[in-house]
Amino acid sequence: MAGSLSPFVYWAQTEDSISLRVALSNSKDADVVLRPTKLEFSAHGHGAKGVHDYGFSLNFNQPLDTEASTYKTSDREVLFILKKARKFWWSRLTATPQKPAWLKIDFERWKSEDGDEEEDEETRDVRKDYPDLYRDLHKRELGYIRESYKEVYLLIYNLFQFVGFTFVFSVLSIQYYRDGPNAMVQAFESVGPAMKFVQLLQFLEVMHVMFGYTKGGILAPLLQTCGRAFVLFCMIDAEPRMHAKPVVFYLFMIWSSVELIRYPYYISQLYSLNIYALTWLRYTIWIPLYPLGVLCEGVIILRNIPFFEETMRFSWALPNAWNFAFHLPTFLKIYLAFFSFPILYFLMNHMYRTRCKKLGIKSWKKSN
């Protein structure tokens, strides 16, 4: 290796192994010497300085199991999977605190392997499993903690939504404290525009799942967001006679109460802050509030049926250019009779299973 250039080497770890990704394409004549605490590598290939002979030597912080360790070459790189002699997370890769300039931390490959094989178990990363270790390594690599654009965006989004629902909840609470039940008739007039705006923004949460910004299934947030939007825009906003109904006040208070817990919980998860009280509220408060919210939505839909039979708004009668007929009051009756409770059951069952996982509660199905 005397006189050879050093390629860029990117390292990551799990609890039981080290991965080294050598940025050397089309490598030939690779010479690898692996000892329990040292790796020597040399090869001819295309690296950062073009086509040359490259090599490096690493003295490891802890011993390796050389028999179980492997490496393979490809057209793009050389990948080492080095098994640790003892399972635990290393504080650094090299024996000395000073690391060579060509050795980089590959944060994208830092994954923790959890033994739970449930199909809905989310893949976790080192930031959540070992946040102090992650921040120390990241700061050592870059000299500062770099926030990803995705995390900054999610922080701003969740904080904005929290402020929006706080505004709705606070205004309604203050008005009720000041005017008593008379405040209910002006709930939509007072906070309707704000509620419509934050509700529209919630469609971004469906897109967050689609584009991988957040994890989880798409069906539950899609059903909940579309259901709320239908009630808010079609059943309340589109029918002025519903604006002054007390049930609108109750519905807005229920929706806001759920979100005042949900968005702070999401913010805490962005920074791996495990606040048990907040987690417990996030996965418990839905138990009374989801059924109450669906009940209020059902009352609003039921009271709107005669209004829409009178105005025929959102209904289409034959003949028309599309040769299609739609009668909204009939649709509302069918929805209330056959779909509202199955959707409620799906959402509550989804939340129940998530609650069991997050709070460490064994589900009754597993105990049988």
UniProtKB/TrEMBL annotation:
The chain crosses the membrane at residues 152-177, 285-305, 325-348. It is a multi-pass membrane protein. Its EC number is 4.2.1.134. Catalyzes the third of the four reactions of the long-chain fatty acids elongation cycle. This endoplasmic reticulum-bound enzymatic process, allows the addition of two carbons to the chain of long- and very long-chain fatty acids/VLCFAs per cycle. This enzyme catalyzes the dehydration of the 3-hydroxyacyl-CoA intermediate into trans-2,3-enoyl-CoA, within each cycle of fatty acid elongation. Thereby, it participates to the production of VLCFAs of different chain lengths that are involved in multiple biological processes as precursors of membrane lipids and lipid mediators. Belongs to the p23/wos2 family. It catalyses: a very-long-chain (3R)-3-hydroxyacyl-CoA = a very-long-chain (2E)-enoyl-CoA + H2O. Keywords: Coiled coil, Endoplasmic reticulum, Fatty acid biosynthesis, Fatty acid metabolism, Lipid biosynthesis, Lipid metabolism, Lyase, Membrane, Transmembrane, Transmembrane helix. This is Very-long-chain (3R)-3-hydroxyacyl-CoA dehydratase. Pathway: Lipid metabolism; fatty acid biosynthesis. It comes from Thrips palmi (Melon thrips). One of its GO terms (molecular function) is very-long-chain (3R)-3-hydroxyacyl-CoA dehydratase activity. Residues 4-94 form the CS domain. One of its GO terms (biological process) is fatty acid elongation. GO terms for cellular component: endoplasmic reticulum membrane. It is an enzyme of class 4 (lyase). It comes from the Eukaryota. Its main location: endoplasmic reticulum. It is found in: Endoplasmic reticulum membrane. CDD domains: p23_hB-ind1_like. InterPro entries: CS_dom, HSP20-like_chaperone, Tyr_Pase-like_PTPLA.
